[in-house]
Amino acid sequence: MDGASNRMRRLPAPTIDFCTALIEATNGIGSPVTQANIRAQIPPPTAVAIEAAFHTGAQAALLYSFPRIASGAGDPVVLGNLRKSDLTKLYTQYFVPKEKPARRLYDQLKITANGKCPLCGDIGHVRTLDHYIPKANFPIYSVMPGNLIPCCRDCNSEKLNAFSATLAGQTLHPYFDDAKFFDEQWVNARVIAGTPPVIEYYVSPPAHWSPTEGNRVAAHFAEYDLAERFGIEAGADLPETIYTRRTTLHGFSPHEYAEHLREKSENMSLHVNNWRRVMFLSLANDHWFCAHPH
Description:
Layout (H helix, E strand, L loop, with lengths): L17 H10 L4 H10 L2 H16 L17 E3 L2 E2 H9 L10 H9 L16 E4 L16 E4 L1 H7 L20 H4 L3 E6 L5 E6 L7 H13 L2 H21 L7 H14 L7 H10 L2 H5 L3
Antiparallel strand pairs: 1-2, 3-4, 5-6
């Protein structure tokens, strides 16, 4: 396996910097006075310092500890004379609209995921950008490229403005989190015997991980409702596997069939926590499924 296909799913950090994002966003502002004021309040040295602090915090998984504006706090002043609304509008009015100069940056960030959502392990197709820490609570980062994650609409709507205030509850950041979260298996599944059988997904972190690391992947799994979403995908895919067992592979012994499923799981060019790879591994490990005629 190679490249982006082998993980859930780490992405390269954006090559677009915060200064560039601010310049392009403010280029779309019609009022010269408003444009000049925002640039005066966040000059390049300030933008560089803000971005460096963000990257340091993200790499250390400390974004949960960053100061936030409480929900329902109105429209407070955030930086200089800039209010929360001034900063969130940089994204909603001057970064996203297709006719604005910064839209090219929005599109560049989207394509880095190669069309597949990194937050749900490639189930969804990228349709939008998600603020890793919400702009409603952290408006200074509304157009920070390192805070903008290409994702599917389901992941974007599942998360909304939620962001944990504890490390244990902080979801995975595709740009900055440790490689172990993407290279090591922590999604598992079990077979529920029945007609038809059901695949039930759950979190099972490696034994050498710390409790906090295990809590983080559990939080990610819950935040994006991956148990149900993976289960739905498996439910749609499993009938084909059962049909193949009844027909092409009907002569296989339970042991031979288990080895076939295990090899299929290992040979698939999918990341270790992909729902389909985990499904085949769980089927291979289930004696009832491999022995049952279905």
